[in-house]
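From the thread on structure requests for the teaching lab: each student submitted one protein with a one-line request. Submission from student K.M.:

"Model Fe2OG dioxygenase domain-containing protein from Glycine max, C-alpha coordinates only."
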Amino acid sequence: MGKQSTPQFSALNCIDLSNPDINQSVNLLKEACLDSGFFYVVNHGISQEFMDEVFAQSKKFFSLPHNEKMKTLRNEQHRGYTPVLDELLDPENQVHVGDYKEGYYIGVEKGEDDPQSKKPFYGPNNWPAPDVLPGWRETMEKFHQETLEVGKAVAKMIALALDLDANYFDRPEILGEPIAILRLLHYEGQVSDPSKGLYGAGAHTDFGLITLLATDDVPGLQICKDRDAKPQKWEDVAPLKGAFIVNLGDMLERWSNCVFKSTLHRVLGNGQGRYSIAYFLEPSLDCLVECLPTCKSDSNPPKYPPILCHDYMTQRYKDTHADLNIYKKQQA
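Reply posted by the TA:
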Protein backbone atom coordinates (compact mmCIF):
# COMPACT_ATOMS: atom_id res chain seq x y z
CA MET A 1 0.00 0.00 0.00
CA GLY A 2 1.37 3.39 -0.96
CA LYS A 3 1.95 6.26 1.40
CA GLN A 4 -1.22 7.97 2.58
CA SER A 5 -1.69 11.45 1.14
CA THR A 6 -2.03 14.43 3.47
CA PRO A 7 -5.74 15.26 3.94
CA GLN A 8 -7.06 18.45 2.33
CA PHE A 9 -9.67 19.54 4.83
CA SER A 10 -12.90 21.16 3.67
CA ALA A 11 -13.78 24.58 5.16
CA LEU A 12 -17.14 24.07 6.86
CA ASN A 13 -19.31 26.71 8.55
CA CYS A 14 -19.60 26.48 12.31
CA ILE A 15 -23.02 27.08 13.90
CA ASP A 16 -22.91 28.17 17.56
CA LEU A 17 -26.18 27.20 19.23
CA SER A 18 -25.46 29.62 22.08
CA ASN A 19 -25.22 32.60 19.70
CA PRO A 20 -27.98 35.12 20.63
CA ASP A 21 -28.01 36.42 17.03
CA ILE A 22 -30.31 33.81 15.48
CA ASN A 23 -30.29 35.53 12.09
CA GLN A 24 -26.52 35.24 11.86
CA SER A 25 -26.70 31.54 12.71
CA VAL A 26 -29.51 30.90 10.22
CA ASN A 27 -27.58 32.70 7.47
CA LEU A 28 -24.46 30.61 8.18
CA LEU A 29 -26.54 27.45 8.17
CA LYS A 30 -28.30 28.37 4.93
CA GLU A 31 -24.96 29.10 3.26
CA ALA A 32 -23.69 25.68 4.35
CA CYS A 33 -26.86 23.92 3.16
CA LEU A 34 -26.57 25.53 -0.27
CA ASP A 35 -22.85 24.73 -0.52
CA SER A 36 -21.77 21.43 1.03
CA GLY A 37 -24.76 20.24 3.05
CA PHE A 38 -22.32 19.79 5.96
CA PHE A 39 -21.57 22.06 8.94
CA TYR A 40 -20.33 21.94 12.53
CA VAL A 41 -22.58 22.60 15.53
CA VAL A 42 -20.89 23.76 18.76
CA ASN A 43 -22.06 24.89 22.21
CA HIS A 44 -24.98 22.50 21.85
CA GLY A 45 -25.47 21.90 25.56
CA ILE A 46 -24.00 18.39 25.90
CA SER A 47 -20.94 18.55 28.15
CA GLN A 48 -17.53 17.37 26.99
CA GLU A 49 -17.32 15.12 30.04
CA PHE A 50 -20.50 13.32 29.05
CA MET A 51 -19.41 13.04 25.39
CA ASP A 52 -16.17 11.43 26.59
CA GLU A 53 -18.13 9.01 28.76
CA VAL A 54 -20.36 7.96 25.85
CA PHE A 55 -17.28 7.25 23.70
CA ALA A 56 -15.70 5.28 26.54
CA GLN A 57 -18.86 3.17 26.90
CA SER A 58 -19.00 2.65 23.13
CA LYS A 59 -15.45 1.29 23.17
CA LYS A 60 -16.39 -1.07 26.01
CA PHE A 61 -19.11 -2.61 23.88
CA PHE A 62 -16.96 -3.04 20.77
CA SER A 63 -14.20 -4.55 22.92
CA LEU A 64 -16.47 -7.43 23.93
CA PRO A 65 -15.81 -10.88 22.43
CA HIS A 66 -17.55 -11.41 19.09
CA ASN A 67 -19.93 -14.04 20.46
CA GLU A 68 -21.03 -11.63 23.21
CA LYS A 69 -21.74 -8.86 20.69
CA MET A 70 -23.68 -11.31 18.50
CA LYS A 71 -26.11 -11.86 21.39
CA THR A 72 -27.41 -8.37 20.56
CA LEU A 73 -27.51 -8.90 16.76
CA ARG A 74 -29.86 -6.40 15.11
CA ASN A 75 -33.44 -7.53 14.84
CA GLU A 76 -36.18 -6.85 12.29
CA GLN A 77 -36.83 -3.49 14.00
CA HIS A 78 -33.22 -2.43 13.28
CA ARG A 79 -32.11 -2.46 16.90
CA GLY A 80 -28.80 -3.92 18.06
CA TYR A 81 -25.42 -4.98 16.72
CA THR A 82 -24.34 -4.87 13.06
CA PRO A 83 -21.17 -6.91 12.39
CA VAL A 84 -18.32 -5.90 10.08
CA LEU A 85 -19.40 -6.16 6.40
CA ASP A 86 -23.12 -6.16 7.34
CA GLU A 87 -23.75 -2.92 5.48
CA LEU A 88 -23.15 -2.32 1.77
CA LEU A 89 -23.56 1.36 0.92
CA ASP A 90 -21.91 1.62 -2.50
CA PRO A 91 -22.38 -1.68 -4.38
CA GLU A 92 -21.08 -0.28 -7.67
CA ASN A 93 -17.64 0.48 -6.22
CA GLN A 94 -17.31 -1.87 -3.24
CA VAL A 95 -15.89 -5.01 -4.79
CA HIS A 96 -15.81 -6.71 -1.40
CA VAL A 97 -19.00 -7.58 0.41
CA GLY A 98 -19.48 -4.48 2.56
CA ASP A 99 -18.23 -1.75 4.88
CA TYR A 100 -15.27 -2.42 7.15
CA LYS A 101 -17.08 -1.18 10.23
CA GLU A 102 -19.24 -2.57 12.99
CA GLY A 103 -22.13 -0.73 14.59
CA TYR A 104 -24.90 -0.76 17.14
CA TYR A 105 -28.39 0.72 16.62
CA ILE A 106 -30.39 2.31 19.45
CA GLY A 107 -33.84 3.75 18.75
CA VAL A 108 -36.55 5.50 20.73
CA GLU A 109 -37.42 3.06 23.53
CA LYS A 110 -40.97 1.72 23.26
CA GLY A 111 -42.22 -0.89 25.72
CA GLU A 112 -43.96 -4.08 24.58
CA ASP A 113 -47.35 -2.65 25.64
CA ASP A 114 -46.96 0.52 23.55
CA PRO A 115 -49.08 0.37 20.34
CA GLN A 116 -46.12 1.81 18.40
CA SER A 117 -43.79 -1.00 19.50
CA LYS A 118 -44.81 -3.42 16.73
CA LYS A 119 -44.09 -0.91 13.97
CA PRO A 120 -40.77 -0.82 12.05
CA PHE A 121 -38.08 1.35 13.66
CA TYR A 122 -39.87 1.42 17.05
CA GLY A 123 -40.15 -1.21 19.78
CA PRO A 124 -37.81 -2.19 22.64
CA ASN A 125 -34.08 -1.85 22.13
CA ASN A 126 -31.81 -4.87 22.02
CA TRP A 127 -29.59 -4.05 25.01
CA PRO A 128 -26.47 -5.86 26.24
CA ALA A 129 -27.03 -7.70 29.51
CA PRO A 130 -26.65 -5.32 32.52
CA ASP A 131 -24.13 -7.66 34.18
CA VAL A 132 -21.95 -7.52 31.04
CA LEU A 133 -21.95 -3.70 30.75
CA PRO A 134 -23.28 -2.11 33.96
CA GLY A 135 -24.77 1.38 33.45
CA TRP A 136 -24.32 1.14 29.67
CA ARG A 137 -28.00 1.35 28.80
CA GLU A 138 -28.57 4.37 31.07
CA THR A 139 -25.66 6.26 29.48
CA MET A 140 -26.91 5.61 25.95
CA GLU A 141 -30.53 6.49 26.76
CA LYS A 142 -29.44 9.80 28.27
CA PHE A 143 -27.27 10.62 25.24
CA HIS A 144 -30.13 9.67 22.91
CA GLN A 145 -32.48 12.12 24.65
CA GLU A 146 -29.94 14.97 24.82
CA THR A 147 -28.98 14.59 21.16
CA LEU A 148 -32.66 14.63 20.15
CA GLU A 149 -32.92 18.12 21.67
CA VAL A 150 -29.86 19.26 19.69
CA GLY A 151 -31.40 17.84 16.52
CA LYS A 152 -34.67 19.67 17.12
CA ALA A 153 -32.77 22.94 17.67
CA VAL A 154 -30.99 22.46 14.33
CA ALA A 155 -34.32 21.59 12.65
CA LYS A 156 -35.73 24.95 13.81
CA MET A 157 -32.86 26.75 12.08
CA ILE A 158 -33.35 24.72 8.92
CA ALA A 159 -37.03 25.69 8.93
CA LEU A 160 -36.10 29.37 9.21
CA ALA A 161 -33.51 28.98 6.44
CA LEU A 162 -36.31 27.66 4.20
CA ASP A 163 -38.58 30.62 5.10
CA LEU A 164 -40.87 28.43 7.20
CA ASP A 165 -42.12 28.93 10.73
CA ALA A 166 -39.39 27.98 13.23
CA ASN A 167 -41.54 25.14 14.61
CA TYR A 168 -42.52 23.73 11.21
CA PHE A 169 -40.68 20.43 11.70
CA ASP A 170 -41.38 20.25 15.44
CA ARG A 171 -45.06 19.43 14.90
CA PRO A 172 -46.73 16.19 16.11
CA GLU A 173 -47.02 14.72 12.62
CA ILE A 174 -43.34 15.33 11.84
CA LEU A 175 -41.08 15.15 14.91
CA GLY A 176 -43.80 14.23 17.42
CA GLU A 177 -42.85 10.55 17.35
CA PRO A 178 -39.54 10.73 15.49
CA ILE A 179 -37.57 7.79 14.20
CA ALA A 180 -34.49 8.97 16.06
CA ILE A 181 -31.71 6.41 15.73
CA LEU A 182 -28.42 6.53 17.61
CA ARG A 183 -25.73 4.44 15.97
CA LEU A 184 -22.41 3.66 17.59
CA LEU A 185 -19.70 2.93 15.01
CA HIS A 186 -16.26 1.33 15.17
CA TYR A 187 -13.91 1.26 12.20
CA GLU A 188 -11.19 -1.30 12.67
CA GLY A 189 -7.62 -0.38 11.79
CA GLN A 190 -7.86 -1.31 8.14
CA VAL A 191 -6.41 0.87 5.39
CA SER A 192 -9.00 1.74 2.74
CA ASP A 193 -8.09 1.64 -0.93
CA PRO A 194 -10.73 3.05 -3.32
CA SER A 195 -8.84 1.64 -6.32
CA LYS A 196 -9.48 -1.84 -4.88
CA GLY A 197 -13.03 -1.14 -3.66
CA LEU A 198 -12.04 -1.17 0.03
CA TYR A 199 -13.84 1.37 2.24
CA GLY A 200 -14.57 1.96 5.90
CA ALA A 201 -17.96 3.17 4.68
CA GLY A 202 -18.83 3.30 1.00
CA ALA A 203 -20.01 6.51 -0.67
CA HIS A 204 -23.62 7.25 0.22
CA THR A 205 -26.13 9.90 1.16
CA ASP A 206 -28.08 9.63 4.41
CA PHE A 207 -31.74 8.70 4.30
CA GLY A 208 -33.63 11.09 6.52
CA LEU A 209 -33.94 14.66 7.73
CA ILE A 210 -30.53 15.37 9.32
CA THR A 211 -27.62 13.42 10.80
CA LEU A 212 -25.58 14.59 13.78
CA LEU A 213 -22.16 12.95 13.99
CA ALA A 214 -19.75 12.97 16.91
CA THR A 215 -16.26 11.64 16.16
CA ASP A 216 -13.01 10.92 17.93
CA ASP A 217 -9.83 12.70 16.75
CA VAL A 218 -9.03 10.22 13.93
CA PRO A 219 -9.86 11.65 10.46
CA GLY A 220 -11.55 9.56 7.79
CA LEU A 221 -14.80 11.28 6.81
CA GLN A 222 -14.83 12.68 3.26
CA ILE A 223 -17.48 14.62 1.33
CA CYS A 224 -18.14 15.12 -2.39
CA LYS A 225 -20.07 18.32 -3.11
CA ASP A 226 -20.78 17.42 -6.74
CA ARG A 227 -21.76 13.77 -7.04
CA ASP A 228 -22.13 14.03 -10.84
CA ALA A 229 -18.60 15.35 -11.45
CA LYS A 230 -16.18 13.13 -13.39
CA PRO A 231 -13.91 12.41 -11.67
CA GLN A 232 -15.47 13.05 -8.29
CA LYS A 233 -13.57 15.42 -6.00
CA TRP A 234 -13.37 14.30 -2.39
CA GLU A 235 -12.59 16.63 0.55
CA ASP A 236 -11.71 15.56 4.10
CA VAL A 237 -13.79 16.76 7.03
CA ALA A 238 -11.62 17.56 10.04
CA PRO A 239 -12.65 16.18 13.44
CA LEU A 240 -13.62 18.99 15.86
CA LYS A 241 -13.56 18.04 19.53
CA GLY A 242 -16.91 18.36 21.25
CA ALA A 243 -18.74 19.39 18.07
CA PHE A 244 -21.37 17.61 16.04
CA ILE A 245 -20.78 17.39 12.31
CA VAL A 246 -24.26 17.82 10.82
CA ASN A 247 -25.34 16.81 7.33
CA LEU A 248 -28.62 16.85 5.45
CA GLY A 249 -30.44 13.68 4.41
CA ASP A 250 -32.28 12.64 1.26
CA MET A 251 -35.66 13.23 2.85
CA LEU A 252 -34.86 16.91 3.38
CA GLU A 253 -33.69 17.11 -0.25
CA ARG A 254 -37.10 15.78 -1.33
CA TRP A 255 -38.92 18.08 1.09
CA SER A 256 -37.03 21.16 -0.12
CA ASN A 257 -37.46 20.30 -3.81
CA CYS A 258 -33.65 20.06 -4.12
CA VAL A 259 -33.07 23.58 -2.75
CA PHE A 260 -30.96 21.89 -0.08
CA LYS A 261 -28.91 18.91 -1.21
CA SER A 262 -28.06 15.67 0.53
CA THR A 263 -24.30 15.34 0.08
CA LEU A 264 -22.38 12.22 -0.89
CA HIS A 265 -19.91 11.12 1.80
CA ARG A 266 -17.73 8.14 2.72
CA VAL A 267 -15.17 7.00 5.28
CA LEU A 268 -11.63 5.94 4.42
CA GLY A 269 -9.62 4.01 6.98
CA ASN A 270 -5.99 5.07 7.48
CA GLY A 271 -4.84 2.13 9.57
CA GLN A 272 -5.97 3.58 12.90
CA GLY A 273 -9.02 2.39 14.80
CA ARG A 274 -11.76 5.03 14.66
CA TYR A 275 -14.92 5.55 16.69
CA SER A 276 -17.86 7.75 15.80
CA ILE A 277 -21.47 8.15 16.91
CA ALA A 278 -24.16 9.02 14.36
CA TYR A 279 -27.62 10.26 15.30
CA PHE A 280 -30.15 9.97 12.49
CA LEU A 281 -33.15 12.24 13.01
CA GLU A 282 -36.08 11.18 10.84
CA PRO A 283 -39.74 12.22 11.01
CA SER A 284 -42.56 10.13 12.44
CA LEU A 285 -43.29 6.87 10.63
CA ASP A 286 -46.67 8.09 9.29
CA CYS A 287 -45.36 11.49 8.17
CA LEU A 288 -46.14 12.33 4.54
CA VAL A 289 -43.07 13.91 2.95
CA GLU A 290 -44.20 16.29 0.22
CA CYS A 291 -42.74 19.44 -1.27
CA LEU A 292 -42.59 22.33 1.23
CA PRO A 293 -44.82 25.31 0.41
CA THR A 294 -41.86 27.70 0.22
CA CYS A 295 -39.91 25.48 -2.18
CA LYS A 296 -42.28 25.29 -5.13
CA SER A 297 -43.85 27.67 -7.64
CA ASP A 298 -45.48 27.61 -11.04
CA SER A 299 -42.06 27.74 -12.66
CA ASN A 300 -40.55 25.27 -10.16
CA PRO A 301 -43.09 22.50 -9.56
CA PRO A 302 -42.39 19.60 -7.15
CA LYS A 303 -39.73 17.22 -8.49
CA TYR A 304 -40.82 14.27 -6.32
CA PRO A 305 -44.22 12.75 -5.56
CA PRO A 306 -45.33 12.66 -1.89
CA ILE A 307 -44.13 9.58 0.01
CA LEU A 308 -44.79 8.16 3.46
CA CYS A 309 -41.72 8.16 5.69
CA HIS A 310 -42.48 4.52 6.58
CA ASP A 311 -42.28 3.34 2.96
CA TYR A 312 -39.17 5.36 2.18
CA MET A 313 -37.16 4.31 5.26
CA THR A 314 -38.09 0.63 5.02
CA GLN A 315 -36.87 0.40 1.44
CA ARG A 316 -33.62 2.27 2.10
CA TYR A 317 -32.67 -0.01 5.01
CA LYS A 318 -33.56 -3.10 3.00
CA ASP A 319 -31.33 -1.91 0.16
CA THR A 320 -28.23 -1.41 2.31
CA HIS A 321 -28.23 -4.17 4.98
CA ALA A 322 -27.54 -7.87 4.73
CA ASP A 323 -30.45 -10.31 5.01
CA LEU A 324 -30.68 -11.41 8.65
CA ASN A 325 -31.10 -15.01 7.52
CA ILE A 326 -27.39 -15.23 6.71
CA TYR A 327 -26.58 -14.89 10.43
CA LYS A 328 -29.13 -17.54 11.37
CA LYS A 329 -27.40 -19.93 8.96
CA GLN A 330 -23.98 -19.08 10.43
CA GLN A 331 -25.21 -19.77 13.95
CA ALA A 332 -27.04 -22.98 13.04
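TA comment: The radius of gyration is 19 Å. The mean pLDDT is 88.
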